[in-house]
Each structure stands twice: as structure tokens, then as C-alpha cells.
Amino acid sequence: MAATFAFPLLEQAEELARLGNWSAEVYRDLMAYQQGRIAGSELRRKYCHTLAIMQLDMTGMTETAMHGGSLLSFVRVLDAHKVCVPVLRAHQAGHVRAFADDLTATFPDPDQALNAALDIHDRMQALNAAQADPARRVLCCIGLGFGEVFAIGLDKAMGDEMNRAAKLGEDTAKGGETLITEAFHAGVAGRADCVFERRSDDELPFGFYSVARKP
Q1: At residue 103, what are phi and psi to the nearest 5 degrees?
Q2: Where do the CATH 3.30.70.1230 domains begin and end in the chain?
Q3: Burial class (CB within 10 angstroms; exposed 0-12, middle 13-18, buried 19+) of 19
Q4: Which of 69, 64, 119, 65 is nearest to 90 (CA)?
């Protein structure tokens, strides 16, 4: 028996979809699951894919806006996009979305995602070296995950590995650093061109690795 409340609940999928997060179809399917009318296995068959996920953040954007003004921070984002997007395309990123100073991208396999991350760092370093104005220099912080995700929402990738990649890229990685989840590491651990280091952080409930090109 459905619970009743003294306040209204929005149950119209089309109205919920105006939030811009999920489509009306996704809202309808989730409400059907919530009400026991469809099984979770059916939702997984419909929406789940195995993908590599990149979550990229840019360093110093808040400080730049505070001290150099909003336009300078916008120019730094522009510079990063001009570098990153061609790299993502070259490594067959399937979905790319930009929001503020973040970029999210998905890839068919972890090797493509890792190659893209390493190339982005290399090219950002080269761009920074050519910048006459130090205030325009920017580094990228990258988190990578790999596994089953639900192809819903703005990033077409929602789930545990997406959450972990986002925590690593946005909150944990430093400028110029790539951090990867344990599941991602399992997919690329055999690479002879990279060095992996097991890491942990008191703020995170899961372990992870840093990865860099072998000298």
C-alpha cells in the first residue's frame, strides 16, 4: 500500500523532466521500479553499459576569478577546452560534456581513457610553457573510473564508478595528476608504459591509484 502524505508529491514524469536531469522516460521507469511494477534487472538491461569515465577539473579557477576577474577565468577555461576536446575526439570519447571548469567524457575502454588523460596533461604543459601571462596557465586534475554505469542524465553515465571518478578528479587529484579507481586499475595494470602507485585518502571510503607515464 502506497504511503500517504499531508503534502503533495510531484508524480508527473514530464514535469520532472523539465529539471533537465533525466528524461521523462527515465522518470517513468524509476517510478515504476519504486512502485514495484518493474524489476531492477529490467532497468539494467535497458540503461546499463560498461564504460570508462573521465572526470576533469581545472586548477585555480576560483582564485583566478577573485583576483583576475571573471573574464580571465573564462579565458583559462577556453584555453583548456581548445586543448582537451581534440584529444578526447582523437581517443574516441563517446560523450563529452562541459560544465563550468569541469569536463566529463566516456570511452569504450580504459586504455583509451588513460591515453587521453596522459595526452591532455602533456599538451597542457606545452601550452602553459608558451603562455606569456602566468595568470593564464592552468593544469588539469583527472579522475578515471571503469565499470557498469546507467546511461542516463546529462553525462550519460551515472553510478558508483562515475561517483568515484568525480571524487578523484574534482576533490582529490592535484594539478597535472591522474587518479584512477581500483576497477580502472584492473583494466590497465598490465601497461608497461605507465607507473602506478597505490594511494588512500582519509576523506575517501575507497582506495585508488595514481598513474603517470614511465620515465
Answers
A1: -130, 135
A2: 46-213
A3: exposed
A4: 119
The contacts of residue 189 (CB under 8 Å, 6+ apart) are 196
Going by C-beta distance under 8 Å and a sequence separation of 6 or more, which residues neighbour residue 79? 127, 136, 138
Identify the DSSP state of 42: H
Q: Residue 131 has which C-alpha cell?
A: 603562455
In degrees, to the nearest 5, what angle opens at C-alpha 36 toward C-alphas 160 and 29?
Answer: 60
**Distance from C-alpha of 2 to C-alpha of 99, rounded to nearest angstrom:** 38
Helical residues (DSSP H) of 22-139, grouped into ranges: 24-34, 40-47, 61-68, 70-90, 110-130
Cβ-Cβ contacts under 8 Å for 162 (sequence gap 6 or more): 53, 55, 145, 149, 155
Which residues contact residue 164 at a Cβ distance below 8 angstroms, ignoring those fewer than 6 apart? 143, 145, 181, 206, 208
* pLDDT tens per residue across span 50-79: 999 999 998 876 676 677 778 888 888 999
Vertex 126, ends 101 and 162: CA angle to 5°? 35
For 132-188, the pLDDT digits (tens) are: 788 778 889 999 999 999 999 988 899 999 999 999 999 999 999 999 999 999 999
Q: What is the CATH number of domain 46-213?
A: 3.30.70.1230
Place of cell 595528476: 177
Name the pTM for this structure. Answer: 0.91
